[in-house]
Protein 1
Amino acid sequence: MASAPAQQPTLTVEQTRVVLSEVIQAFSVPENAARMEEARESACNDMGKMLQLVLPVSTQIQQEVIKAYGFNNEGEGVLKFARLVKMYETQDPEIAAMSVKLKSLLLPPLSTPPIGGAIPSS
C-alpha cells in the first residue's frame, strides 16, 4: 500500500532567505568546498561529467541544510526547495541575488559562442 505523499514545506520569504543563506554558506565549509573542487576537477568542464559528478555532491550538500526545514532528504527535496526559491526570486531581490550566487557555485562559467553562432571546427 502506498503511503500518503509528504506535505511540502512552506516557507515565508524571510525563512527562504535564511535557508538559502545557509545553503550558500554550506558550500564554503572546507570539507564541502574540497568535495566540490574534487568533483569539478574530475569533470574537466565536460557538462555530461558535471551532471554525473558535481550534481550529486552539490545535491548532498544542499540536502544536509534543507532537511532541517522539512524538505525530504532525497533529490526531490532539493528540487522542491529550488522551485520555492524560483517562485520568490521575482518577489525579493535578495533571494534573486542569492539564487544567482548559488547557481554560480554549482555551474561552471559558460563560454559564449562567437557572434554569428558559428562553432569552430576541431
Protein 2
Amino acid sequence: MPALAKAAWVAVVPTAFLMALTPGAAAIGNVDCRKVRQYFVPCAGYLFSRSAANPSVACCTSLRRLNAQSKGPVRQGVCECLKSNAASLSGLYQNHATSLSSKCGISLKTAVSFNTDCRKA
C-alpha cells in the first residue's frame, strides 16, 4: 500500500481527533478517503508520538488489511488519499509515517514520502 507510509496514524490519540482532522478529499477516484483514514486510527500513537519505537500490532494488522484490499487503480486512490490527509496533519512525525510500512512488514513498489508519485504505486 504505497500511501501507507505517507500518510502515515494507536490509542494515544483519540479516534474522535482523527475523524475531526481536516477532511481532505472525501473521495479520490473510486476510493473513499474517510474509509482509508479509518485504517490508520490504530496507528495514531505511533504516528503522533516521538517516543513510540514501533507501531502496535493492531496498527499493522489494520494496515495489512488495507494493503490486501488495495490493488490497481484502488491502490493509486489510497495513495492520493493518504498524501492529501498527511499534508494537513499537525504533529505527524514524518519519519514515523515514512517508516510505517516497513515497520509493519508491508512491501511497497515505490519509496515512501509525501512526494510519492502515486501513479507508480
